[in-house]
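Repro case for the chain-ordering regression, as requested:
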Amino acid sequence: MTQTDTAVRLEDITKRFPGVVANDNVDLHVERGSVHALLGENGAGKTTLMNVLYGLYQPNSGRVVVDGEPREFDSPRDAIDAGIGMIHQHFMLVDTMTVAENIALGNEPRKWGGLAVDREAARREVVELSERYGFDVDPDQTIADVSVGVQQRVEILKALYRGADVLILDEPTAVLTPQEVEDLFGVLDELTDQGKTVIFITHKLGEAMHAADDVTVLRDGENVGTVDADETTREELAELMVGREVVLDVESTPPDVGETVLDVDSLSVLDDRDVPAVTDVSFAVREGEVFGVAGVDGNGQAELVEAITGLREPEAGTVEFDGRDFTDAPRRERIDGGMAYIPEDRQERGLVMDFDLVENGILGSQHGEPFAGSGTIDWDASREHAEAIVEEYDVRPPNADNDAVSLSGGNQQKFIVGREFERDPRLVVATHPTRGVDIGSQEFIHDRLLELRDEGRGVLLVSSKLDEVQGLSDRLAVMHDGDVMAVVDPDDVTEEELGLLMAGEHPEGYEPRSERDAKGVAQ
Amino acid sequence: TGGPSGGDETETTTEGSSGTTEDSKGTTTGSDTTHVGMVYATGGLGDGSFNDQAQSGIQQAREDFDLEFSESQPGAVSEFGNYQQQYAGSSNPDYDLVSCIGYLHADSLSETAANYPEQDFQIVDETVDADNVGSYVFREHEGSYLVGVLAAHLTSMSFSAGAGSTKPDSTNVGFVGGRESALIQKFEAGFTAGVKATNDDIDVQTSYIGSFNDTTAGQEAALSMYNSGSDIVFHAAGNTGTGVFQAAQDKGRFAIGVDRDQSVTKSSYADVILASMVKRVDTAVYNAAEAKVNGNFETGTTTTLGLQDDGVACVYGDQLESEIPEDVRTAVSDARQSIIDGDTSVPQNPSDA
Amino acid sequence: MSAADRARDLLGRLVRASAFERFLISISALLLSVFIGALIILGAGRMTDCSSAAYTIAVPGKFVTQFVGGSSVFAMGFCYDPFAVYDLLFLGALGDVLSNPLNGQFATTLAETTILMFTGVAVAVAFRADIFNIGVQGQLVVGALTTGVVLAYVAPPLADLGVLATVVLLPLGLLLGGVAGGAYAAVPGALKAYADANEVITTIMLNFVATSVALFLVSREKYFKDPESFANQTVPLPDVAMFPDFLFRPRDDVSLLALAFAIAVLVGIWYLLQHTSFGYDLRTSGLQPDAAEYGGVDADRTIVSSITLSGALAGIGGAVYVLMMLGNFQTGVPDYGFDGITVSILAGNNPLGVGFAALLFGVLKSGSVVVQVGSDVPPTLVGVLRGLIILFVAMPEFFRMIGRKFGSFDQPGEPVAADGATGGGSDE
Amino acid sequence: MSDGSRVAGTARSAVVGAYDRLFVGRSRLQQAVVGVVLLAALGLTAAGVFAPQSDAGRLFAVLTADSTLAATLRLSVPIAFAALGGIFAEKSGVINIGLEGLLIIAAFVGIWATDVTGNVWYGLLGGVLASTLLALLFAIVCIEFRADQIIAGLAVWLIALGLAPFLSSVIYGSKNTVSVDTFPTLTQMGIPFVSEFVTWELGFVVDLPDVGVDFVPNVIDLQSSLVGLPFFGALFDASPPVYLMLLAVALSWYTLHRTAFGRWVEASGENPKALDTAGVNVHRVRYGAVLLSGVLAGVGGAALALGVGQFTGNGPTMVNGKGFIAIVAYLFGNYHPVGALGSTMLFAGLDATQLTLQARDVFQVPTELVRTIPYITVIVVLAVFGRTRIPSAGGEHYESGEDE
Ligand SMILES: Nc1ncnc2c1ncn2[C@@H]1O[C@H](COP(=O)(O)OP(=O)(O)OP(=O)(O)O)[C@@H](O)[C@H]1O
Ligand SMILES: Nc1ncnc2c1ncn2[C@@H]1O[C@H](COP(=O)(O)OP(=O)(O)OP(=O)(O)O)[C@@H](O)[C@H]1O
Ligand SMILES: [Mg+2]
Ligand SMILES: [Mg+2]
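-- result from build under test --
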């Protein structure tokens, strides 16, 4: 068998789901020993394409060629046998098992004629592999006890353990700190040096250019071009990705701030595992301003927001809302007091998936006027309300009788945004309000958010999209490891400075956060 | 094997077959055939004691007379009334007698009987005051007294027979009851009185299982008694008693059966069954059926069956009878005579025993 | 849009509506169970002995006719005739309803139906809140016991007041049952909400406890045993405390008033679930606890209050059992609670559906008496049917696959959970 | 360091270790309950030693009687087997609340097959086959047709609850079967495990001219002295199912924790997608686990019925909730086979003592109330300590190639 230069070739791959063409005649060539980035917006079809290569999905048409040989993968088993390994966006690890057990899962070395797992052999192999690639993992630790970065390394080891020559990484950096991202890119170099081929999925331009040799851009399920990473520019990639020139600047007038609506003081919060997630955080949000919180996902933003909105009991500190102490107030009291909340997880929290939109439209308002009086619900008023949201926020298909589950992710989000904005809130807590929403709707949501601000309501905006928080916020707090690193003026700060803050470092010239900044008293 | 006798592949026309269901519904039977509807107690058939005993009575009657019967096993007390009415109201066939087995029938029967004044009923184990009901009750405590005497004698000697043996130093015997109720307590009271009258130093260990159908618990309760020194356990627990026999076999000890001669009906345990406190429910059923056939069934009265008329009796085990010492048997028959003569009065309540 | 198009559109939407699909699935499950039940009857008929065949399957013996001649066929005889059994089971339960709608067997059917409505809706309410209340049986026992015991003291002094006494005693009895059943259910509710104790386990355990304690209390004269009776029961209640029997005869132990009350309760619970804030909270926390919490629902309180409501309904069922059927409390309460689970599942946990499912099971229960009296087939067959129905209702995907084969109800989206999780909104 | 101080040191660390295990990291309530239980145990022991005639003293005697252990082991058999079965199924992500039904069908077929073949072991095999078939039906319904596992499990219970008495009525004319042979105990079997083996070994030795002493009687004495041991003697004179149970617990632990299949079962219940992407067929693993639960519950059910030699089909049948208790047992045992055995024995032990207490009239508590002790204990323990984590994917259907 002759070695070809192309490790993997996907030819004319089409993959359809009910109502969507996720991949539309996609071609992809990946050079052996290279790092190949797959770039594209949410829903562009990146994961689907890689799932096809990994045998999880069978394409409707097209061919997979590995090492010059056409292959048909009926299951991941076949792909693994062909030397392909995939590290999924959501890690495929068993929390209750050890690192070594996870790595060996499905390929356990046996002893005693297959009757027992040779655990020593598995450990040895894991130790050996991690030494070869310079990983630092303890084979005996339980997955639940190790950090996300280590979990990712375990995933990579898992693929290598199965003899993968081609490694697919689906959005490997999404959950990592900048330092961990650098470490990861080091690992990728190590891998290619040893002759492995890497495909990694991302929607971050910088990463693609920095770490990859080639970049393929997917848009709406189609391959819109493969470029050499050294010869392209950010602008070119961005245009390929979204199909038009992007204007990220949101035009906004200077804020006209009033009273303090939300006052968070020395708040500390534990996460689900009882580990401190937020430590001693203080800030205030005032009428007529957007207070942004930036940071890499998983640095305590979620717990902070849940403590403010009443879904999580804080460990210490106080939350004052509208001048009253709300630290221990039940969730319902906060809703009634005028706190609107766009939750991060729309399918778990924001909507009851099996309710129709009429029923979902009153989620949170089911107890009082105008939809419920003396214990009974006024379904006619509720219907009108839902229909109004559907119309104004362009929810498609425009039918309030549809169950939430039948809507696409973006339309679900639009409905939630509509419901929360129409509450006539004092304060809007918005987490990732435009996640999964198409560009047109994004602009609409941004405009409505600013409108609310201009009407004199407070907005607490949490987003991991830097351009979004930076563009919309009047003041911007950067969180790292449960701590507010600094509260900055979003117009003055550079992306580099923000990046450093998000990574937990103070750029020169920036003071550590002060009570004054956080509460905005000086302005 | 099964299916209609006649083989698997019968050459027949589809019209030709008439089944049992047709029998009871469709075909008209001769007007001289007596029809009896049996409604058993909730334990159901297969208990090897009470209900089965009633069934053997009616089966015997069917052999002896021109009689047909239909039977049903209610699952709960609240269903009794419905079953009674099913038979009472049926016109095809028209049941001559509806026989209600067990004291739990009493309440619903007094209502049903009032509503079907033309229908004759029999009730066993309780008295129902109605003109169309014949009641049959037993003096269980008297029979139980006798097996108590038997047990007390045997446990204080060195006795070995069949698969069991007793130790002379043993000072206690056991009683296993089914569900707690006044009726079962009559058994307990008689047994305890018999034991105490024979030898006041012998204790009676008592356990109620709470069910007539929990063989495992019956077995464990009896095992626990055997382990703590009992040689002989008497049960009045329906099918739960099967567990008692099993325990006796496991431990090489003895048991005393109830309701029927269980050394015959549960012959695999004949080597440990010393005797059975037989309660002639079969006689009660048979007599009622016979009276009905002969046209002299008495209603509005209560027939009490005690030792005198062999309504209850201590019947020795088929296999072990010959091994039981003569003097013990004499003691038992003396006690019997003494009760019949009225010299011994047997308590019905355990607290009086 | 033409009328035909509109009709097709409407039909399409109907078919997609999960409530309708549920209905189809329940019917199919029932039919399939009846079919398999028939096979079991035939099979059992081969295993038992009888003198002549009750049912014969004739195989048109082409072979025979061709080579042997004549009109004879090969046939296989069976001791039981499934058609006759089903005739007794389903039609027998109605009695001669056409000539006499007030016949005793039909009365039994209605009485069973009435009790099953209460236990069925009790299970359904809990299910809708995502609580599996297996303890309905125990709650029913506790409700029945409380009603029987308390009324035994309260009722006799009032017995002379006639209708006035009924007006006081009947509601009091129902209230007692409801309060007792609710309180007994609140225990596992609180344990689930505040101590994370799995309600499936605690309610099963509490069933055993309820039965034992009830036996303890009514088997001793120093407590509540009727001294007049051998049976473990409380003293009989005076007639004025009982449900009046209107059209039916007193011995039928049924009351149309009780049935009407049961139906009113079903409608009331439906209204509660669909049209009140409490119902909204309950359904939301049943479907998606996280979303409920987000919507300001106090999860712990909802757990406790829903299972308390469920237990109260079961307890009222117990009270009706005492006040309509027995006239006192007696140990050995039939398994209405477990049948309630079946009823609720068959009804897709919809309170209105519970009415129909309860009727079906009322027919099965009453019909099994007729089967037992009228044939040799063991009535435990009904138990098998019940299990099969539940099994098939549990696998909607099976029917969808068949449906898809014939191109009827092909539907995108989530499968309807068999516990009726989906479709909360569609019956509003 | 003197020997004395070393002993003291060891004792001290043992005490501290026990203290750590019992009290540290527990809530106040839990500490209180553990404390009360320890005190009660201490009090009982004291009463047993100093006042053997008091109620407490007699309770102590009952608790420490070897017949108590024997009864506990016997009563444990069906529950423990069902619990082991439940562990496999649920760890693989299929919650099997139909265990009760599996026990019922196995109990009936166990008797029937024994009746037909005349051999207890064939009976056991028949019971296992029947239970496995029913488990297969359950597996198909849950895995192939995506049935709700709880409801399908309920259906399995109801079907068996109807079918077993139905078949019994058809075959034996009543819901209760006839009586058949039962398992003999070790002593009755002529003790093949211990004495015959050892006898044979030594018999060989005895043949050697050098050894003049006849060892054989000594060996048998060893056996009977083992049986005669206080409390633990019961371990040496039980019936085969008890030993099968102990063996099954060990084998189950081994299978779950030391074999590849066991690891797959765990992954299938915790994160089936991880298993799928590792190239193992999740459906196949789940089928295996559910069938195994059928086999194990089958042994338990058949052993239950063959312990008394009769199937009782009235009301809730002779199984009478043991399948549900088994679920409680493995939840208590936190899905660990040994833990499940421990909690099974706790429950069975309470049951056994309850019967003995009644018979010996210790503490004049009414029998009906004594009978509730095991159930109430379960509730209390569950309320105070009961936070079992069920496998993350337990109860969820898994289909390869779908988004979570
Ligand atoms: N199993 C599925 N069933 C139906 N539709 C699907 C399925 N998986 C993906 N899709 C749809 O296919 C399209 C492409 O999805 P894919 O997950 O490949 O996007 P992506 O590029 O990986 O996006 P992201 O960056 O958000 O991960 C989307 O519209 C998605 O909703
Ligand atoms: N797992 C699924 N099963 C069935 N239908 C699905 C599934 N996932 C998505 N769909 C359907 O596919 C369609 C596309 O959904 P998806 O969430 O991918 O939308 P999208 O293209 O990302 O749109 P948006 O930008 O609004 O999020 C929707 O109509 C949705 O109902
Ligand atoms: Mg993706
Ligand atoms: Mg999307």
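Ordering looks correct now. The two ends of chain D are 62 Å apart (CA to CA).
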